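dumping this here so i dont lose it
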């Protein structure tokens, strides 16, 4: 069992049921980490537009299928954003 000192405290926690939910969670994670969309794009090897599209809840077939599978199996995707910076 972990002590309270070892537990991370989430400043944002969300169940993701739609691509819009996912976009908001990704945006909150980026903001909590103090990163711009361009910073994230560089870190993941994508364009800033791609990051914007993810955060905007744009229609990506892979995301729709992932969410559909979660729903079909009764599983839930939960995003927790810890406080503070992230190591890149």
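and the seq i came up w/
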């Amino acid at each position: 069992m972990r002590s309270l000192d070892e537990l991370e405290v989430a400043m944002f926690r969300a169940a993701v049921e739609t691509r819009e939910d996912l976009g908001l969670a990704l945006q909150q994670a980026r903001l909590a980490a103090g990163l711009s969309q361009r910073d994230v794009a560089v870190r993941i090897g994508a364009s800033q537009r791609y990051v914007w599209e993810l955060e905007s809840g744009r229609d990506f077939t892979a995301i729709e299928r992932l969410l559909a599978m979660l729903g079909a199996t009764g599983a839930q995707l939960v995003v927790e954003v810890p406080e503070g910076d992230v190591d890149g």
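The beta strands are 10-16, 77-82.
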